[in-house]
Write the structure tokens for this entry.
Amino acid sequence: MTEASCIFCKIVSGDIAADIIAESPNTLAFRDIAPLSKVHLLVIPKKHYQNVVELQESSPAVLGELMSQATELAGQHTNGSFKLQFNTGTEAGQTIFHAHAHVLSDNSKDGS
């Protein structure tokens, strides 16, 4: 997948709408359109990296920013019980080849 065809790059550029819930200088967070749990948020670097390994190798500071944003959002949207998940490679379930973290929980902060 090229950056030009990447759905997450299109969300960053504003070409595709998303329910954006947070943004930092290098990251963007939004709700997953096909949630797998009550809380299913995605946190992505604004710049295209194929997966979390490439992100770590190329820009560990951006990975740190992504992790900070993910844990802050987990605190805001869950009761403190959550999964933070990166899928790397097809066999691991990665379907969009732009690095991203899933914040998942069946326990939302508001109890819904």
The domain at 3-105 is CATH 3.30.428.10 (HIT family, subunit A). The chain has a mean pLDDT of 95. The beta strands are 20-23, 27-31, 39-45, 83-85, 101-105. The two ends are 37 Å apart (CA to CA).
